[in-house]
Amino acid sequence: MLNRVVLVGRLTKDPELRYTPNGVAVANFTLAVNRPFSNQQGDREADFINCVVWRKPAENVANFLTKGSLAGVDGRVQTRSYDNNEGRRVYVTEIVADSVQFLEPRNSQNNQSNNSSNSQAAGGYDSNQNSNRQQGGYNDDPFANDGKPIDISDDDLPF
Amino acid sequence: MLNRVVLVGRLTKDPELRYTPNGVAVANFTLAVNRPFSNQQGDREADFINCVVWRKPAENVANFLTKGSLAGVDGRVQTRSYDNNEGRRVYVTEIVADSVQFLEPRNSQNNQSNNSSNSQAAGGYDSNQNSNRQQGGYNDDPFANDGKPIDISDDDLPF
Amino acid sequence: MLNRVVLVGRLTKDPELRYTPNGVAVANFTLAVNRPFSNQQGDREADFINCVVWRKPAENVANFLTKGSLAGVDGRVQTRSYDNNEGRRVYVTEIVADSVQFLEPRNSQNNQSNNSSNSQAAGGYDSNQNSNRQQGGYNDDPFANDGKPIDISDDDLPF
Amino acid sequence: MLNRVVLVGRLTKDPELRYTPNGVAVANFTLAVNRPFSNQQGDREADFINCVVWRKPAENVANFLTKGSLAGVDGRVQTRSYDNNEGRRVYVTEIVADSVQFLEPRNSQNNQSNNSSNSQAAGGYDSNQNSNRQQGGYNDDPFANDGKPIDISDDDLPF
DNA sequence: TTTT
DNA sequence: TTTT
């Protein structure tokens, strides 16, 4: 069945990069996508859409995007559920990105929250590319994400 | 910003049609969209995606689709939140359909749950069309939906 | 950069299956997609959109779809040019399908132009699946497509 | 039937704005959309996709976008044909934009080809908005587009 | 819990 | 709470 989503918006926060027990990278981020029309009160609203991306593009996202970055997402709608710590079933709808597009150069006026000295003119970099840009070597270390507890499982892998 | 979703799937139940206090029609339904790949256990899963549609297409949806109907949706991702009866903030992600496509004739083998005697070959009817098909006249009666409590407000209208 | 197309329509003819010199399958077909609105004269028109699909899905398309079949396409817009036999540069815009969705059972009332005796209830078969359905074994024979001259090159492969 | 396209790319030239005999604005432009993968020779190619947009968004496009501007398009695939001056039938496939997204501030480094002194931070302006930005008043003058011959007809209007 |  |  067809299931396709395309979004362009700005990250509400820096992306979160984590690793499954098997060392597969996953990044989560939220896109604020402004609506093209105003509501009854006359102001523009936005949708805050949760996105997930796996593997190499996850690492590219974590390396290139920060709070405020303009990004495009091409993916699909996914629903899943889990039982929270109160024993309640929680239903989640999120976008699984097949690819993420970086629509601004790194460190443009919109994402000065990272302080890398190495600016780069992007103009359409695709997160699906392989790259030798990551300096942290965290690729080989599932716990490199500063020891944050990992609650995602390899079963969540989209394929 | 861009926000576009296209889905093709089957209704998990008959759609629910309601009216705002101002008499604007809204229909809700869930599409089961089968994934194109299998999970680690080797079985095909589906995403169960909540959809909303407003005004005339809402009534067309309620008249044409039933549990099991194959339908296409062209719309956008919307997020909103409300406080539930336990005083907790609930976050909702759903698809607001601009148009809904009926991909099967009415009363095909997949939607025999309605028992109208009036079969019709569809093959691509678009819910955006006006139509004189509704017999209930509920268009003029916001309470025609058998007295079900209406908890949606006109503020939820997408435009 | 983002480039995404989703279509649902009916094949205007049986698909054409061919093979590159290296034996890679390609299928071409045209989808008639009815417009959701009428023109000034009050009649509904359609767009006739040329589609290409490669590899295994190409063979599935050739096996499952015939003139009149309802199908969904998820792909991208591609432009290319070639010099025709009059030495003129011709520009082509077409859709390269990543996946093709079969939205009707084989041999439904809309695609009786093939005369296979083996009907099958489909209801959402995805062309990306591998399958053991092809009986012709043409997979190993680049000229199996009844000796038709092959004018596509392996350079046209999308990846 | 479903027909949806989403593109993000850069204009290959300044857009062309024209008016039908009835004074309806139309803008044409071509988007260069880089492919996310390299070809056999290892270089990245692009698709050059012709787009049309009507009415108010046409004027916004003409006012905001220039050669090199990064833009997003949400629209549909359209095919049409006409007889050229050699009496030959020409088939055209193009994207009819429902909305065009401006993904860069006006006069950013990528579209310095216009020399307006009035820079403006955009960050996601939607061409569908009404605006009081046009100074030329060409809205009321179908020949304001410097006398260029108009070969489009009101019959080409999408609705 | 939200971006420009 | 899920469809074929």
UniProtKB/TrEMBL annotation, chains A, B, C, D:
<keyword id="KW-0233">DNA recombination</keyword>
<feature type="compositionally biased region" description="Low complexity">
    <location>
        <begin position="107"/>
        <end position="120"/>
    </location>
</feature>
<comment type="subunit">
    <text>Homotetramer.</text>
</comment>
<keyword id="KW-0234">DNA repair</keyword>
<dbReference type="Pfam" id="PF00436">
    <property type="entry name" value="SSB"/>
</dbReference>
<protein>
    <recommendedName>
        <fullName>Single-stranded DNA-binding protein</fullName>
    </recommendedName>
</protein>
<dbReference type="InterPro" id="IPR000424">
    <property type="entry name" value="Primosome_PriB/ssb"/>
</dbReference>
<dbReference type="GO" id="GO:0003677">
    <property type="term" value="F:DNA binding"/>
</dbReference>
<comment type="function">
    <text>Plays an important role in DNA replication, recombination and repair. Binds to ssDNA and to an array of partner proteins to recruit them to their sites of action during DNA metabolism.</text>
</comment>
<keyword id="KW-0238">DNA-binding</keyword>
<feature type="region of interest" description="Disordered">
    <location>
        <begin position="103"/>
        <end position="159"/>
    </location>
</feature>
<dbReference type="InterPro" id="IPR011344">
    <property type="entry name" value="ssDNA-bd"/>
</dbReference>
<feature type="compositionally biased region" description="Polar residues">
    <location>
        <begin position="126"/>
        <end position="137"/>
    </location>
</feature>
<dbReference type="InterPro" id="IPR012340">
    <property type="entry name" value="NA-bd_OB-fold"/>
</dbReference>
<feature type="short sequence motif" description="Important for interaction with partner proteins">
    <location>
        <begin position="154"/>
        <end position="159"/>
    </location>
</feature>
<keyword id="KW-0235">DNA replication</keyword>
<keyword id="KW-0227">DNA damage</keyword>
